[in-house]
Fold this sequence. Notes:
Chain A is α/β, with parallel strands linked by helices. Chain A has 4 helices and 5 strands, in the order βαβαβαββα. In chain A, 37% of the residues lie in helices and 26% in strands. Chain A has a 5-stranded mixed beta sheet. In chain A, strand 4 (72-77) and strand 5 form a beta hairpin. Chain A starts with a strand and ends with a helix. Chain B is globular, with a radius of gyration of 23 Å. By secondary structure, chain B is an alpha/beta fold. In chain B, the strands form 7 sheets. A 7-stranded parallel beta sheet of chain B has the order 8-7-6-9-10-13-17, with helices on both faces. Classes of the chains: A alpha/beta, B alpha/beta. Chain A binds chain B through residues 4-6, 25-37, 56-60, 62-64, 67-70, 87-93, and chain B through 13, 23, 25, 27, 31-32, 34, 36, 38-44, 58-59, 241-245, 247, 254-261, 285-286, 289, 371-377.
Amino acid sequence: MEVNIDNIDEEINDSEKPVFALFWASWCTACKRSEVTVSEIEEERDDIKVIEANVDKNMGLRDKFDIKGVPTFITFNGGEEVDRKVGAQGKRQLTKMIDEVVNK
Amino acid sequence: MSEEPHNAERTCWNCPAAKFKGNVDFRGCGQSRRIVPKGEDKQLMIECKRRPELGHFEPSITFEQCPEWIMGEHGYMLEDMRVMILGMDGYLGWTLALKLANQGFQVSGIDNYTRRDCVMEKGSHTLVPIPNMTRRLEAATEELGVTLNFRRMDLGNRKKLREFIEEVKPESIVHYAEIPCAPYSMVDAEHAIEVQRNNVLATLGLLHIMRDVVPMTSLLKLGTMGEYGSPLTGRPLFEGLFPNDAVLQWDDREWSMGGEMTPRDPHSFYHVSKVQDTYNIYEGCKYWWLRSYDIMQGIIYGVHTEEVSQHPDLRTRLDYDEWFGTVVNRFVSQAIEDIPLTVYGEGEQIRGMIALEDAMECMVRLITSPPEPGQYDVVNQVSGLHKIKDVADTVARVGNERYDLDVEIQRLENPRVEAEEHPMEVVSRKLPQEHGFEPSVPVEKEVERMFELLSQDHIKQRIKEKKHVIMPKTRWSGEKKESGVLEVYQPGEKEKGDYEGKLDTE
């Protein structure tokens, strides 16, 4: 699901499942492609919550989450950041990242 | 396919009438610079240039919801959308100008008549006669009831171009103003330099004008499938950028390639100019939040659209000389005059192609579905893959069976440096899947339309007058020598080669 600056805290903190977040921008071709992988993951897995946030439309997000480049993928558990990866990632790499937070 | 128009879910985020308000992050470089001041924690707001009374709001109104976007022939269209066509006097530019104007777009355009000059330089002329621009504009008004706002100017004249763009404030710019010719760029240093100057430098100037005057306007830039080359490994020709699941493996490690530019392998100095444009536009999007579709068009052919077929003075040009004649157009012209069709080399070259009418529909769909701010996107605009010798067979067969001709085919020494036998897989998913495009013109249908038009006596006479422009004399080696004939054969005589093209649309 697409989230914004107003509801992202709620979506991360109140989630019963671990959260997998993609921070992206329209101008970033790698992000546009990553969205496809992330949508597949969202459809395939029910053990995590997937959120996506556009850092251009929501300018405060970059400071809030210290986003230094896009795409950035972050996993959260119980509202706490568990892991983050910057730059395009293959599905296998993302699956590994998610498995780690789910099995923690 | 869903009944919903292809662009119904697009929003203000895509719309050229949306103007950013407040702090906009025009990033300086790449993907890692962070220049938004701390404490700025709002969502991005916009103002609608068409409806300023709405004030500042989030860019979330869909085209379906917005009253400025009305239902058109190919999905929603921004009412009275202003489209500027660079190169409006050309084969594509003129055709698109009429199509858009006829559908209610406000069309403006420029041209410096380079194409007319280049074809004249070859000693040729357009096979389908076209009047001068003054008469073309009159005919558009008389026959279609439309007004086209045309200025004669060179794309490289930044001062004049800027003034015109400031005056018109186009909401979409279609860039057809390049010299579209591989052999022309291979004639000698002068021609190679002129092609790259016109194509690369003028486009670079255009990007700067767009940054300063119309940064929200989408740029639809004509590229070419020839940017990719024809890799002998059979690697698919993706739509400009690697798909999400592409991975680079090396030294027992792997990296995602998703979203990175795919390799380019141009095969003339003209194709190099298109590759250079691709990078310049990509950077413009990255630095300044411009937005663009880089349209990798297959070989275009044909004479028909609803508009150009309405009156002889509305016709678009059709070139058949060795420089500017694209392959299908050349073949039909040769068939009409009983000249054996000129296949270069083995004829096993596989190329993406698209008929004029289909290409124009794609353009309307892309104009009305602009990319997002900063988005550089690529579409492969092809409706089928065809082997050159199969195209020759089709043209000869149509000519022989329906027009009582006796068309033969000749294989010539290939003046070009290119693979003559190669695999070819082309991915073309975005136009059908994201933009609702379905090709409607198979090669044979358009070839028949061409025979019908070109068989008229006054047109046949025009081929007779310029027969000398047909045989290739421009070699990639730099040598000026007519290609020798390797063999002459009848259509249907040749066996199938090893490779078949594969078009991946799903």
